[in-house]
């Protein structure tokens, strides 16, 4: 491991706004952000109070619970930080496995005094360990690895396998946002939405087109750009966006039907090979 990565890993261990594989966090995020806002050092996760809402009790007037927004595969945390700048009345959590990437967003949040954004270092398939039922109001998935091989379809973050995980902590009818440069992941996600009868709110295969930006569907949140967006790894020259509600049951027996449907537009190159090919083309 390089020296710079080691320095970043050491730094986030000292950051109050970064939690690595935290234990016992479901229902405690509201209390955690209250302590973070106070500037508490060495926040004890064990001592944090569980929200009354998380234990199916009506919150008292004194318990102000802010909406909690989750960014999955957050990378450097541009969306978590960008959204935090826009909405002081909400809390934001970015989740990713790569600590050296999380360091960037966490450092910016610390520098700019953004006490309502934090980061969790862990695997996404472990996400249900960190949030209680109905604790999250929205999910953003920004430029994830599209896992282009058909054999890796279940690793896509909008595959029903993952959507079922999100349903365990997303509020009823909670919204999921996907922003990607991958036409395949975009089409795959639209297929999932249609197959399972989920409510599609907005979709476009050209987010920054003049027509969409001037339409009533445009939202200033879409303008936040990530490091990976700038790379255009898929060489699509377009940004694709989908917003939908996770508001229906997701029968497991339909997963095989999904596999049959997507074979019509699957490709065999992996995300990594596309990146290598793009690099070679520039050399």
Describe this entry's structure for a reader.
The protein has helices spanning 3-12, 29-38, 78-86, 99-111, 160-166, 183-196, 210-213, 227-231, 255-262, 271-282, and strands at 18-20, 68-72, 91-96, 117-121, 136-142, 170-180, 199-204, 240-245. It is an alpha/beta fold and 283 residues long. The protein has one domain: Rossmann fold, CATH 3.40.50. An eight-stranded mixed beta sheet has the order 1-4-3-2-5-6-8-7, sandwiched between helices. α1 crosses α4 and α6 (183-196) runs antiparallel to α9.
- Average predicted local confidence, pLDDT: 89
- Helix residue percentage: 25-40%
Largest sheet entry: 8 strands, mixed
Gyration radius, in Å: 19 Å
CATH T-level fold name: Rossmann fold
Strand numbers in spatial order across the main sheet: 1-4-3-2-5-6-8-7
Number of helices: 10
At CATH level 2, the architecture is 3-Layer(aba) Sandwich
- Head-to-tail CA distance between termini: 26 Å
The CATH superfamily name is Vaccinia Virus protein VP39
**Overall strand count:** 8
The general outline is globular
The string of secondary-structure elements, in order, is HEHEHEHEEHEHEHHEHH
The low-confidence runs, each spanning 5 or more residues with pLDDT under 50, are: 268-274, 276-283
| DSSP strand content | 15-25%
* Structural classification: alpha/beta
The top level CATH class name: Alpha Beta
How many distinct domains? Answer: 1
